[in-house]
Amino acid sequence: MTVGPQSIVVVGGGHAGGAIALSLRENGATGDIVIVGEEPVAPYERPALSKEMLLAQVDAPVPLASPERWPERGIALRLATKVAAIDRTHRCVLLEDDSALPYDVLILATGGTARSISGSLEAGAFTLRTVADAESLRSRARISRSALILGGGLIGLEVAASLRQAGLEVDLVGADRQVAARSFPRVASDWIADAHVKAGVRLHLGSRVTALRRAEGGIEAQLANGQHLVSDLVILGLGIEPNSRLAADAGLPCNGGILVDEDYRTLGDRRIFAIGDIAERSAIDGVRPSRDESWSHARRSAAIAARAILALPPEPEEAPWFWTSQFGHMIQVAGTTDTRLTAVRRGPGVMLYLDGNRLAGIACLDTPRDFLAGRRAIASGQGVDVARAADPATDLRKCFFTHMAPHAGVMS
């Protein structure tokens, strides 16, 4: 007996694309599954690209599955292959080699392309999205003494930390006056900035690069404040542009990302889903649609969409969460950390965010036990005894009580 659609095509061979194929099989799907990916390697986890690979601690990132597992699970990989178009009328994807793959369900996990600024690539700047990018950057870093990072988001910060640990002099330019402002609350941003400054990274915040050019002695960057920085190596960490062209050309509603419902089904076609970085999802509590480029969201969106495709009941949704590891510190954030919430400090490494007496969010520095307890409390809608929770000597797990229906929370 066939369980689920007879043919499923996944466009995108990154973490989200690989995760949904595996999740479909784990949940009982029996139809054909094909992953079409532009990279020549099987799906893998990306966090190591900006950390362990740059530090030469590993030669390659962690694969999502062993090489033999894909054929064992009946998942076909079409690697180093580009999709040219989606034919919704005939329900097939057209490949650049003029062949076609029919589908009953199509999943778009196309991710994004690293942003650049005018003249940056011509000047020799690097971006970091793929294994090949990481290998090229690592090779260049080995013969460089200094690096300039453009962008104060998580990727830029992780690259800055790795290169500084590798012995390079590092400058980082960020447009915001706070690092990681999109992902983390102020307290977590301050933890990260403090670690960078102590390690010798020079932060230029509230500024931006207006021009890059090749110069004697390296690459020269001109900042908006008139300052000039010269370095051997420039890396762009300016975020991504969603790869939504295929969807837009096929007539699917897009707003930067691809607009999807709570099950990651596109708003324009019930047979097509979009997951991972590309998905622009309406939040459960009704706030405006937003994208989430985190590692955890790749996994979470794949799991939710897989169950929807197989018409399985949804599982309780976990609170969104982010993490980063820099200079030996682990910074983790979960739930909502909106400035309108009441912030309660729990020692030097934990901040709790309260909506009334319900825990809505948590930020942690090197306190994984508190983070796990907080994530569970957020997902289950538990309240918190504030006086006890503010004491870091008290086990945080013993500070919660159940008083309302589960609430998933949404990152601000």
- CATH-defined fold name of the largest domain: FAD/NAD(P)-binding domain
Structural class: alpha/beta
Oligomeric state of this protein: single chain
- Counted up, domains total 3
CATH class category name of the largest domain = Alpha Beta
Which key features would you list for this structure?
412 residues, alpha/beta, FAD/NAD(P)-binding domain, Enolase-like, domain 1, five-stranded parallel beta sheet, 9 helices, 29% strand, globular, disordered C terminus
Description of the structure:
Its cofactor is FAD. With 412 residues, the protein is α/β, with parallel strands linked by helices. It has three domains: 7-111 and 243-310, 3-Layer(bba) Sandwich (FAD/NAD(P)-binding domain); 115-239, FAD/NAD(P)-binding domain (3-Layer(bba) Sandwich), CATH 3.50.50.60; 328-401, FAD/NAD-linked reductase, C-terminal dimerisation domain (Enolase-like, domain 1, 2-Layer Sandwich). Strand 10, helix 5 (186-199) and strand 11 form a beta-alpha-beta unit. Strands 3-2-1-7-19 form a five-stranded parallel sheet. Strands 21-22-25-24-23 form a five-stranded antiparallel sheet, sandwiched between helices. It starts with 6 loop residues before the first strand and ends in a 10-residue tail after the last strand. The longest helix has 15 residues, at 295-309. It has helices at residues 15-26, 69-72, 131-142, 154-165, 186-199, 245-249, 295-309, 368-380, 386-389; strands at 7-11, 32-36, 75-78, 83-87, 92-95, 100-102, 105-108, 112-114, 146-150, 169-174, 202-205, 209-215, 218-223, 228-231, 233-236, 240-242, 254-255, 257-260, 272-274, 279-281, 321-326, 329-335, 342-345, 350-355, 358-365, 382-384, 400-402.
